[in-house]
Amino acid sequence: MIGRKTPRTEDDTPNLKGFDDYDLSLGDVMRGERATLNKSLLDVQRELRIKAPYIVAIENADPAVFETPGFIAGYVRSYSRYLGLDPDWAFQKFCEESGFAGVHGMQPEANTARSDAARPAAKRGWRRNRIEEDPVLASATALMPQRTALFDGFNAGALGSLIVLAALLGGLGYGGYAILQEVQRVTLTPVDAPPDAVVDVDPLAEAALARPGYETAGVRAPSTSALSRLYRPEALEVPVMTPRDGPIATIDPNSIGVWRPSVTTPPTPTQLAEAGPDDTPAVQVVAPTPPAVAIVATNPAWVRVRAADGSILLERILETGESFVLPNSEAPPTLRAGNSGAVYFMVDGQTFGPAGAPGAVASNVILSRETLSTTFAAADLDADPDLREVIATAEARLTADPADLPPAE
């Protein structure tokens, strides 16, 4: 075909890039190493004591986030050492990507504390300026002591603290004084009570009025004791009591209490003649109880008794001579038994069975009195002495103590 073997030019060959052809920044390397260690920014902040925004700034090569440029080198080296990278290579890479040239002690931004602490000479007193300008007075070996101003060490912030402290103490003092006045206050409340007797200042004043030679009309002012008696009830010499019982001497201990003799009056001949047997039949208020149906095992056999509603009344292995009495219910339960040749039924004192052939499984056996008496034949106890002994033992258990029967599981 035409053009089948046309040679390709070099421009048609695609230029595939390798792994090293892509730009790999310091942040990509650090984020990859941090992801390899399965560490988050909060984990790094908790372990290195470096704030998470600073960690992000190092990965993004952004020195503007740092408040103090002097700590950038230490943060970068500590973080790179934590990730297992070369600290010098990481710091050099950070400087190349961010344009950070490092900070040394001669740069003004590295000495911020010293520049902030310096005060201009214009704010100082003329005496201090004079001492600093004199090389002899300013030297540490000067003989004369340096004089300081009165308010040289005064701080305006301390004045505010003193004012707040004084206000707090004043408030506490006023509160204590107010509480003390409230506690010591006495309030008089009028009550509905008669006035008390006032003691006479001069008890002889009444006697002085009765002078010899003078006659009175027999009218005297009421005394204080008389006023008191008006409001005070008169006390009785003997309390008024209404007796509820008779005198103790009239009580006969033989007529009351546990010592009272029982008196039986013999019946008269007329009463005996009129008495006769009570032919009134007893009133029946409940239906007669149906006869109990019991399952007896002559040999170990697995049985499961299921109620009409599907609940399981019994499901276990009955040992030799063990029996189970069916509870009374409206619908008869059903039986499923293994080794049915060893399972018998007791109804009205009679034994029916077995439920099936020896070693066979009997299913859906209706455990009702009518079904068991019609479906199964009566067991011949005389022909089998062992069966007679097992049935006798089961009957003795059921008759002696029904509470000892095995519970339904």
TrEMBL record:
Residues 295-362 form the Cytoskeleton protein RodZ-like C-terminal domain. InterPro entries: Bact_Cytoskel_RodZ, Lambda_DNA-bd_dom_sf, RodZ-like_C. The chain crosses the membrane at residues 154-180. Keywords: Membrane, Transmembrane, Transmembrane helix. It holds the Pfam family HTH_25. GO terms for molecular function: DNA binding. This is Cytoskeleton protein RodZ-like C-terminal domain-containing protein. The lineage of its organism: Bacteria, Pseudomonadati, Pseudomonadota, Alphaproteobacteria, Rhodobacterales.
